[in-house]
UniProtKB/TrEMBL annotation:
It comes from Floridaenema aerugineum BLCC-F46. This is Uncharacterized protein. It comes from the Bacteria.
């Protein structure tokens, strides 16, 4: 019976992973401040629920080694001296069947976001305002402790797009070594968008 329960959970999470990746680009507008307060509360409750569930807790376990932690912390601390608003978000955040890679750009307060999952990917731009990222696609990306959530408005309803929060950020990849996308044309298109938008995968100059 326990085996069936775990299998059912894995199937449902896989289906949700594919669904959440699809809806990320379909937000009708940014949630309002009041809507975000409620969504943040729901997100915190969801994190606690996962942490207290032995079957699900493993999905948000931090598997980074010391070198991975140090490399990301160095990158963030260096960028914080140049643009402290974006620095906490920069990194490659792990999720269920997907990840979000958040890069700095040469425009203050702006980040470049690449979502990858199940071999596919997408690119968008975001502006950091009041400690959260407002994307060009109408989503809000926000931090709660060591976790990252994504909110949007779908069918006129404000929702948290991810039931399994993003976590354990690592150092972002070089854009030429972008992983998680199997289609070469799609990868090249994202790299072109990345470069055209003034995004960077390097430490700030000077």
């Amino acid at each position: 019976m326990k085996g069936r329960t775990i299998l059912g959970l894995m199937v449902s999470l896989t289906v949700f992973g594919a669904w959440s990746l699809a809806v990320l680009a379909q937000s009708q507008r940014h949630p309002t401040t009041a809507e975000m307060q409620k969504l943040r509360q729901e997100f915190r409750q969801n994190i606690r629920s996962i942490q207290n569930d032995a079957q699900r807790a493993d999905y948000i376990r931090d598997r980074r080694n010391q070198t991975e932690l140090q490399n990301r912390e160095l990158f963030v601390s260096t960028w914080s001296k140049v643009d402290s608003t974006i620095a906490p978000f920069v990194g490659s955040w792990s999720g269920w069947e997907e990840s979000i890679k958040i890069y700095p750009s040469n425009v203050r307060g702006r980040v470049c976001i690449i979502v990858t999952g199940e071999g596919y990917g997408s690119f968008t731009i975001g502006s950091v305002s009041n400690g959260q990222i407002l994307t060009n696609n109408g989503q809000v990306i926000f931090k709660e402790g060591n976790y990252l959530g994504i909110a949007g408005v779908y069918n006129n309803t404000p929702i948290n797009a991810l039931k399994i929060p993003l976590h354990s950020p690592k150092l972002i990849e070089r854009i030429t070594q972008l992983s998680g996308i199997t289609e070469v044309k799609e990868k090249n298109r994202i790299i072109q968008q990345f470069n055209a938008a003034g995004c960077t995968d390097s430490l700030p100059r000077g």
